[in-house]
Specification:
heterodimer, A: mainly alpha, 2 domains, elongated, disordered C terminus, B: alpha+beta, Arc Repressor Mutant, subunit A, two-stranded antiparallel ribbon, two-stranded antiparallel sheet, 10 helices
């Protein structure tokens, strides 16, 4: 991804921000913008930009075009009896400005709050352990979503060791192998925590193969991913009785023996 | 009551444990809770407190939390008890920030205007797509979204069932923690969204352009309810 070109008008965060500034400076209402005046001032501000970068300033130019268009429409005679507010050429822009202003106000409010690690401080959290095994499941337990799994993956990738200085021939691991390794973990454990699936010395490729294997196993309903509390640890359990049954199911479905296409039960979205 | 037997067998030395727990003098409850919150560091939910205290009822715990909150303020202590991210947490008061910062020698986290505006939009409209954010702000949101993802203030919550299956973003628990919000409903209500209920955070009132003052939830009520759920974010 290329570095985004940010046009830094002195203090403005975008065309809407600039417009709101001009409206405030002219002490007029958003609901009744003197479009000619504001358009002139808007264009004048753009010209003050020392290096108007066409690429990055596109958003400002689009707004300039909109303003000029509205200004031209305002010059047209208005049919007598049509008095609907939607017929005001400024209507759409007005709605957009009001909406942006609302969120901008909220943003100001957020920034003024007592922000953690800036204004207020707390102890570094101790990790509260997950519920003890065998404990009745809390009502809050829910199936972990794809987003939860991606969050957890992010955490694992973050703690990966930096790559070694000299290159060691890397072990390639297929998703099929990863599936077997994941299932092997359930031979003597009922539940495995998400993070525990990934050895600390695992390479990025291994982590990703394991993650893909995990997604596949969940999709095939061989494993279940559950979270005791929002943002809590994700626990994986077998959704079938035994590891052998799990392995059999994976093969039955033909995914890893190369016979693609036998699982037409339409639940690929899980 | 399987949990109680489990606890007893795990700590065989706690003779008469049940009896003692049943009789935790209510007068000691605030101090006990103070210990728990200090030890945890992170916000602790009401149910977790009730479970750890093993005896006092929820409303007694709520009353003790209220008493503790008030005593911190009344006595001008160096800590405050706040409701945040569905739980209770001990934090330093705002006024002590300069000294704490000097001790920690850490640069405070930067929250730029684009970050705050984007967060505001995501917080109210979640789950929402990048295009929706860009439509409101009138500028590109790519860079600022990836900063917010890195800072764990927003997260990907799924994909929209629309052409291109765009990613959907939502706020995180860290978002609530960083801004000291008990839950999402503590944000001021945008008139346009027509929400019926709002709780807490009177200091956040911006009485202009459709933001209306929130009502105050002053009772020590349970904050870790469904209010913490972003709308439409099912697992």
């Amino acid at each position: 991804m290329t570095v985004p070109c940010t046009v830094r008008l002195p203090i403005f965060e975008g065309p809407l921000d600039l417009l709101l500034h001009l409206i405030k400076r002219n002490e007029v209402q958003v609901s009744d913008i003197p479009i000619a005046t504001i358009t002139d001032q808007y264009l004048a501000t753009l010209e003050e930009l020392p290096e108007l970068n066409l690429d990055g300033a596109g958003e400002y130019l689009v707004m300039a075009a909109t303003l000029v268009y509205i200004k031209s429409r305002m010059l047209l005679p208005v049919p007598e009896e049509e008095d609907e507010p939607e017929d005001d050429p400024r209507h759409e822009l007005m709605q957009q400005l009001l909406e942006y202003q609302r969120y901008r106000d909220v943003a100001v409010g957020l920034g003024e709050r007592a922000v953690l690690d800036r204004d207020v401080f707390a102890r570094d959290p101790e990790r509260l352990g997950p519920p003890r095994p065998g404990e009745p499941a809390e009502p809050a337990v829910r199936d972990a979503s794809l987003g939860d799994l991606l969050d957890a993956l992010r955490g694992v990738l973050r703690r990966l060791r930096p790559p070694p200085v000299h290159e060691v021939p890397r072990e390639e691991i297929s998703i099929g192998q990863a599936v077997e390794r994941v299932l092997a973990r359930f031979a003597d454990a009922e539940a495995v925590e998400f993070a525990a699936l990934f050895a600390p010395e695992a390479t990025r490729a291994e982590v990703i193969a394991t993650f893909l294997a995990l997604l596949e196993l969940i999709r095939l309903r061989v494993l279940r991913a559950q979270q005791a509390e929002r943002f809590g640890a994700i626990m994986l359990t077998l959704a079938v009785a035994t590891v052998a049954e799990a392995a059999g199911r994976v093969h039955d479905l033909g995914r890893w023996s190369g016979e693609e296409g036998q699982h037409g039960d339409g639940d690929r979205d899980r | 009551m399987e949990t109680e037997t489990a606890i007893d067998s795990e700590y065989p030395n706690s003779n008469g444990h049940d009896q003692a727990a049943a009789q935790v003098e209510l007068g000691r409850l605030p101090a006990l809770i103070e210990s728990l919150l200090f030890a945890a560091g992170a916000p602790v939910g009401m149910s977790r407190l009730v479970e750890a205290l093993d005896g006092p009822e929820r409303r007694e715990v709520a009353a003790a939390l209220k008493a503790l909150t008030e005593s911190y303020e009344r006595d001008g202590r160096g800590l405050r008890l706040v409701q945040v991210a569905g739980g209770y947490q001990l934090r330093t008061p705002h006024e002590h920030a300069p000294w704490v910062r000097r001790l920690l020698r850490e640069r405070p986290p930067r929250l730029s205007r684009p970050m705050l505006e984007t967060l505001a939009i995501v917080a109210y409209r979640q789950p929402c797509t990048r295009a929706e954010i860009e439509a409101v702000r009138g500028v590109e949101a790519d860079a600022v979204l990836s900063t917010l993802l890195d800072r764990r203030l927003v997260r990907i919550v799924g994909r929209k069932d629309a052409p291109g299956r765009p990613l959907l973003y939502g706020t995180t628990r860290e978002f609530l923690e960083v801004f000291g919000l008990p839950d999402l409903s503590a944000l001021p209500t945008l008139r346009e969204l027509g929400e019926a209920e709002i709780l807490g955070s009177p200091e956040l009132v911006v009485d202009a352009a459709g933001v209306r003052p929130p009502a105050v939830n002053d009772e020590g009520t349970e904050p870790d309810g469904t209010g913490a759920e972003p709308p439409g974010d099912t697992g």
